[in-house]
């Protein structure tokens, strides 16, 4: 800083130039030595040692280096008695220092002098970097695409055990594409050790170059310094095969199903396509024109393999791939022997491998005690059947330990089995089987069994079968022999019986039975019958002859073929014998008196006679017995009774079939006297057949009938319906009668009848669903079996009924029989049906007559009112002077109507005939104008009475040159409501009811009001007080009448009010009109006339 201040002071002085110049020189001279000194110091600093680094590869020597520009170095280590080392380079190898910090002084001599640096060094500052490893050998197994490398770990340089991690890098292609980075761990043992590492490439090694290098890392837990990887070793490579005659790799490779595999093609031509089987695969380009394809999850191949093909422009290259499975562990390994000379081992190979030919699975059976083995050779075809290997037994060896090894190109499997072969004997099938008689109850069996069984015992089983008997098994133990011939005795057989024999053998320890030998039938010899025949006797109907029956002896008791029978009877007087009766006959008849005899029957065969069977001939009388019923089950029936201590011999049950017309087929059964029940069985029993059973008891050398039973072994439904007829028919009942069903068709005990009846015609459908509970079907259940008739009451007369009758047993319902019956007509009902309407009509007539009589006045007034006679009315006889002079008498005065016009809606002819014409008043016309909302329903409301016209022929008028009309004025209509349009009159106006004054008017002109009045005044009758010339006429065919049937178009007709002059003829016509008024009846209620 001082130097720096001195250099800046001259620039601060500005006041004197001279002073500056003097000071500058002084400063320059003073700084020159300082600059030289600083330059020397900087030179020393640049040459001083720095950045000391120490590494070790063996823990024993530290290799230290530093940076500096010295020519000579002096390194001193203070803890070693200030030992120093003189070096010419910045590197030194020193022995490993003990734990702790150490001061290292490094002095550097250089052109500027010397410089010294001090460093603190400990193990923590030392880096452990192993030596660069070296690959001693790189080899390739092209058949498996496997690379193998070998190197030395140089463990002798390491003083103690340490763990080493090796990192191996595999590169591919000239572009050094990394395909595998693996680690391999080893342990340094203090001596040099060679290590190996294998890697299988997914790419065939023949198609592309592969490079390998490695480095190491020592993981020593006792070293506290920094640990680092060593440098990579030099590359080692395996190059592709360029000039091989084979172009596609791998060749004929066997792979596991489901694995991935890569195929490559080495070619100098451009490969266009590649496929496996029928599948085209994308190409993977390698170095040059080499290509590859990758197959994933390959499936099992056929027996001939799967083709892989590469195609170029000129050639096709290919290979075959075999995809399969490794062998399964052999299953169900079993080793046994048939003859103790040879061991047979069998097993199941398990899952098929899909590999055949030289790639098939091979089996080796190894016996570990003796060290011997045998190989299995089998056909090429792959099957799931059991395989067998034969192993020769060794003398004096009984226990064997077998190992079965299965191997194919994809792997191997094994299983073991240890056996004592004497306990695993499965003998051959016995041969040369023979049977020989000893006596009637014993035979000998002989056979051959191949094998040497001298050291063991055999267990043999004999199967014995005889007709109608359960099969019998007998076990015998015999000593084994070396000659293979064996003999055994079989006793306790029945004489004269056909037996069938079989035999099989095993060892006494038992492993498996041999197969049964072939069967051998044999008939034993005859013997004396062991028992006499079962006998019974019956007296003939006349009681003179005794018939003896016996049953043939069963084979088990006959002991041979029965040739004949001897029958004899004995009494106190002596013995009587019959001649021999040949075998087919089992019946004999003897004529005896009434004394008691003992009957004996003896059976004889070729060997001798049976013991005699005896039975007493006496029949003890019995009381009246009630016939009982019994039902069995299947082909058996159970009978029970109470024990009788008086019965000393036995009980006999006799039965026979009584359901048929042919003679009874008799059979019997004897039961000991101590029994009170027995089950009767017979092959002759049939369901639905009635049998008679008789129970006899034996006492005092005679038989007494104890019970009589009828029964069925099984009840069935009847086969026929009861035959029934109608005995009597009335209007409300039917009497039915039926017959019994025959026993052979009843097939069971009759329990009752079901009688159905319903209304029905013969042509209608048959009665259906009799048992379905229909409400219209009546059912009667008849359980009284003695009842043979039935009366059906509460029926309807003259009605058809459908009748059905069925019988039933416990076995079911029998068929039905039906008929149709019509009841008689009910006369009382018919009479009642006629009398009731007549009585009702008479009663209604009487009541109506009484009512009409009591209401006669009301009926008369309502339907037939009294109409006054106009001839008796003096109102029409008023004199003119009275009528003209009195203004108070205005009873029939009519106010004049001044119509505007007359509208006629319909006309029937060109000359109109006006009927019931109404005179329209102006008031009504105005009302019509206000209600013209419905022009179609035009109604003309009249005030004035209608005028009814009538043509009256008049010779005088015809002579005057024109017809005349008579107009009727309906006075009644003036006071009654207007008629409805549909009720408009369409009748001839002349005979119509009511009073209608007549005015005869000419057609061609009108009558003046004055003339008419004068002319009418001359008459003595009534005249209307109105000027008819001012009336407006409306046609009766107007819209007021809807009953018009005219088809002519309505033509409006307007008659204007006029007052034309009247002729003399018209005046006479008016007078005639007045006279005609007197001939008509005027309703009394329409006028108020003072009389």
Automatic annotation (TrEMBL):
<feature type="domain" description="Fibronectin type-III">
    <location>
        <begin position="329"/>
        <end position="428"/>
    </location>
</feature>
<keyword id="KW-0325">Glycoprotein</keyword>
<protein>
    <recommendedName>
        <fullName>Leukemia inhibitory factor receptor</fullName>
    </recommendedName>
</protein>
<keyword id="KW-0675">Receptor</keyword>
<dbReference type="GO" id="GO:0004923">
    <property type="term" value="F:leukemia inhibitory factor receptor activity"/>
</dbReference>
<dbReference type="InterPro" id="IPR003529">
    <property type="entry name" value="Hematopoietin_rcpt_Gp130_CS"/>
</dbReference>
<dbReference type="GO" id="GO:0008284">
    <property type="term" value="P:positive regulation of cell population proliferation"/>
</dbReference>
<keyword id="KW-0812">Transmembrane</keyword>
<dbReference type="GO" id="GO:0019955">
    <property type="term" value="F:cytokine binding"/>
</dbReference>
<feature type="domain" description="Fibronectin type-III">
    <location>
        <begin position="429"/>
        <end position="528"/>
    </location>
</feature>
<keyword id="KW-1003">Cell membrane</keyword>
<dbReference type="InterPro" id="IPR040817">
    <property type="entry name" value="LIFR_D2"/>
</dbReference>
<dbReference type="GO" id="GO:0019838">
    <property type="term" value="F:growth factor binding"/>
</dbReference>
<keyword id="KW-0597">Phosphoprotein</keyword>
<dbReference type="InterPro" id="IPR003961">
    <property type="entry name" value="FN3_dom"/>
</dbReference>
<keyword id="KW-1133">Transmembrane helix</keyword>
<dbReference type="InterPro" id="IPR036116">
    <property type="entry name" value="FN3_sf"/>
</dbReference>
<feature type="signal peptide">
    <location>
        <begin position="1"/>
        <end position="43"/>
    </location>
</feature>
<keyword id="KW-1015">Disulfide bond</keyword>
<dbReference type="Pfam" id="PF00041">
    <property type="entry name" value="fn3"/>
</dbReference>
<dbReference type="GO" id="GO:0043235">
    <property type="term" value="C:receptor complex"/>
</dbReference>
<keyword id="KW-0472">Membrane</keyword>
<dbReference type="InterPro" id="IPR050379">
    <property type="entry name" value="Type-I_Cytokine_Rcpt"/>
</dbReference>
<comment type="similarity">
    <text>Belongs to the type I cytokine receptor family. Type 2 subfamily.</text>
</comment>
<dbReference type="Pfam" id="PF17971">
    <property type="entry name" value="LIFR_D2"/>
</dbReference>
<keyword id="KW-0677">Repeat</keyword>
<dbReference type="Pfam" id="PF21177">
    <property type="entry name" value="LIF-R_Ig-like"/>
</dbReference>
<comment type="function">
    <text>Signal-transducing molecule. May have a common pathway with IL6ST. The soluble form inhibits the biological activity of LIF by blocking its binding to receptors on target cells.</text>
</comment>
<feature type="domain" description="Fibronectin type-III">
    <location>
        <begin position="532"/>
        <end position="623"/>
    </location>
</feature>
<feature type="region of interest" description="Disordered">
    <location>
        <begin position="1029"/>
        <end position="1060"/>
    </location>
</feature>
<dbReference type="GO" id="GO:0004924">
    <property type="term" value="F:oncostatin-M receptor activity"/>
</dbReference>
<dbReference type="InterPro" id="IPR040901">
    <property type="entry name" value="LIFR_N"/>
</dbReference>
<dbReference type="GO" id="GO:0009897">
    <property type="term" value="C:external side of plasma membrane"/>
</dbReference>
<comment type="subunit">
    <text>Heterodimer composed of LIFR and IL6ST. The heterodimer formed by LIFR and IL6ST interacts with the complex formed by CNTF and CNTFR.</text>
</comment>
<keyword id="KW-0732">Signal</keyword>
<feature type="transmembrane region" description="Helical">
    <location>
        <begin position="828"/>
        <end position="853"/>
    </location>
</feature>
<dbReference type="Pfam" id="PF25552">
    <property type="entry name" value="LIFR_D4"/>
</dbReference>
<dbReference type="GO" id="GO:0005127">
    <property type="term" value="F:ciliary neurotrophic factor receptor binding"/>
</dbReference>
<feature type="compositionally biased region" description="Low complexity">
    <location>
        <begin position="1035"/>
        <end position="1045"/>
    </location>
</feature>
<dbReference type="InterPro" id="IPR013783">
    <property type="entry name" value="Ig-like_fold"/>
</dbReference>
<dbReference type="Pfam" id="PF18207">
    <property type="entry name" value="LIFR_N"/>
</dbReference>
<dbReference type="InterPro" id="IPR048497">
    <property type="entry name" value="LIF-R-like_Ig-like"/>
</dbReference>
